[in-house]
Input
Amino acid sequence: MKYRLMGSSGLWVSEVALGAMTFGNTDWGVEKEESRLVYEGFREAGGNFVDTANIYSGGRSEEFVGEFIAGHRDEVVLATKYSAPMRPGDLNAQGNSRKHMMESVHASLERLGTDYIDLYWVHARDHTTMAEEIMRALDDLVTSGKVHYIGISDAPAWQVARCNTIAELRGWSRFVGLQIRYSLIDREVEHELLPVAEALDLTVTPWDTLGSGVLTGKYNRDADTTGRATLRGRISQRGLDIAAEVVAVADEIGRSPAQVALSWVRSRRGVIVPLIGARTRGQLDDNLGCLDLELPDEALTRLNEVSSIRNPFPHNMLAAFRSTAGESHRPDQH
Output
């Protein structure tokens, strides 16, 4: 296992993170003992970056993680999130407000059995709370020592940029990470979110990197297979076509489809630290096999072509403009 700096911070994290969304989930996740085996396997491989959220399994994921890290808490980079509704019908128990943030962080600390969180994520931007309120409240958490670093998940690129710009101008803590859905099936983030992460020096931690399991090829092998993708209605013919190419590449190079799909994500521009979720120790070990896989150029080309997406406005117009304008140089360039 290698390690990478988290954005512009001095925090070292393993080159993949363990996503604990499966921990305690009774629909498509696992109970405590299997979750513990997955966690221990990740630690044995050298992983130090564990990611959960207050909403996962109604708080059970945080409870499991807190129990697993007891005794070596300081060796783990612990990340959790807030924003999701925690009390149905209570408008103040959801979103990005200071009130919800403070209540959430204290509840998470209790479930995790710790007095600090290494990385605290805004789970999703609510489009209601002012950016100044969010960034000031997050800075207060950092100043208090309850949180060490902050990040944002599932937000438009302009919101990410605005929040970090406000924080920079005010001298507040800035986001060091960006968590987004990203896979061969879901590449829309390449237009705005990946460029903003690169421009602002944010480490990207992609989730759903296997397309809810579609990219493992299991739905190609058996259309009646049930799993996370069927529960979420995320199986499409396009996804199955991409998965078929992933399986073909995997067969040719003697690797698993999951390793190929994860290796493709890791090959993208910027600092990419994929979230790896697993229901069993065997799945975890297979996923970790992506760490020593560098896909051949020919395989990358095939995967890029089968998963290509339309270039939307204004990017399509700007690309055409650049091609007709040719190379230009500013007066101070040589």
